[in-house]
Amino acid sequence: MITSTSSSQVRHVISLLGKARERKKYKEYVVEGVRMVSEIPSEMLVKAYISEKFADSNPGFVKDFIRNKCIEKSAIELVSDHIFNRMSDTRTPQGIMAVVRMREYSLEDLMGENPLIIGMENIQDPGNMGTILRMGEAAGATGVMISSNSVDIYNPKTIRSTMGSLYRVPFIVVEDFQQGIMELKNKRVKVYAAHLDGRNCYTEEDYTGATAFIIGNEGNGITEKTASECDTFIKIPMEGQVESLNAAIACTILSFEAARQRR
């Protein structure tokens, strides 16, 4: 049982939670909570950690977890309660967390049989990014493309917001977002931008074919360079004096319209 913060494992978990560069260096990240740990694909699990209190309250969990994941008992480490609380990124830890191996995707992995791709440019709010990924899974998105200046998708707050969709929705982070859009267009994906200058209402377009929606920064929208690469601007009609919607909400409206048309 781990009982000291001087443990190399404790230091490693804390560094992964706190620093994006450490996550990139080791190609690992941390998830917390029963659901997020239980849904980890077996091949991605590096190590699971449980607190004394969690172990006492859930005596059958470890045995079931080992059996379901087909892993060795050594892949789970018991941690004293006060040390676990130091390791955790949440105010009220559930008593279970895990180090997870990153999965790498290519653009081809995002395509699917009939692409429905979400592009995020310079999204800064972790909750927005996580919600978009979760929503994308619900709407049937085949993948997500993220600009490199967006918030880290492995940020602990982002991970919590995905509610497990992080494991199931393919995504890539691209250094040149405009080039990424061009590559989508080369694959005959029609690229739509949610934009205030859109002439057509979003319901007036056909999304039954290969489609990508580009969502921009929460405050400034998409950049002019990105806008120039998109095929079509679309708008979401709004009443009152509201000028724009939350990025995740706008993306949800567009994605579920595509899902509706594809049913």
Can you offer a commentary on this structure?
This protein has helices at 8-18, 20-26, 34-38, 52-57, 61-69, 81-87, 107-111, 126-139, 156-162, 177-186, 224-229, 247-262, and strands at residues 28-32, 45-51, 76-79, 96-101, 116-120, 143-147, 171-174, 190-194, 200-201, 211-215, 232-235. It is of the alpha/beta class. Strands 7-6-5-10-8-11-9 form a seven-stranded parallel sheet, sandwiched between helices. The longest helix has 16 residues, at 247-262. The protein starts with 7 loop residues before the first helix and ends with a helix. The model has no long low-confidence stretch (mean pLDDT 95).
SSE map:
Blueprint (H helix, E strand, L loop, with lengths): L7 H11 L1 H7 L1 E5 L1 H5 L6 E7 H6 L3 H9 L6 E4 L1 H7 L8 E6 L5 H5 L4 E5 L5 H14 L3 E5 L8 H7 L8 E4 L2 H10 L3 E5 L5 E2 L9 E5 L8 H6 L2 E4 L11 H16 L1
Parallel strand pairs: 2-3, 5-6, 5-10, 6-7, 8-10, 8-11, 9-11
Antiparallel strand pairs: 1-4, 2-4
Return the average pLDDT rounded to an integer. 95
The proportion of residues forming helix, as a percent range, comes to 25-40%
- The global form is elongated
Strand content: 15-25%
